[in-house]
Design goal:
173 residues, mainly beta, 5-stranded mixed beta sheet, 4-stranded mixed beta sheet, 9 strands, 6% helix, elongated
Amino acid sequence: MAGDNSSLHASTLWAQRKDFVFLTIALADSKDRVVNLEENKLSFSAMAGSPPQKYEVLLDFFGKINTEESKVSEGAREIFMRLKKAESGFWPKLINYEGRKAPHWLKTDFNRWADEDDSDAEGDFNFNDGANFDNMMGNLGDGPEFDADGEDDDKPDSDDEDLPDLDPSDAKQ
């Protein structure tokens, strides 16, 4: 999991879906990048900073990855990976770190995270799929006290009562 003592660790975010693991290694302006993805592990190294220092990320995955269907995209500021799980399902953790603490540089990417129960409803609130908001808003007031058409507006409500003056000195004038 850790390399030699002269290497630094790049900040790494991870998230998962039923069929994929997403990894983002944040390392701006890095050079000499080496990404090695195997079925059960990932190794990454690069030089970055001024003066240049070696950065590493070494991960032993909890489950197996389908390397043929996985993708790595390298940008100027980060390396993004979309790793296809060999077997569909949610992992309880990303890496095996039995008897040790999870590394401090490995964090959950909550912007991409999906829980097991969220995965079935992944597309429910996609605003680009032509959702009918009139029906959605109409279904909000199904309770007996909700008046969607506004017919009972002339009847007195509890908020129609006169309010007492807030400042007692105003009442004397």
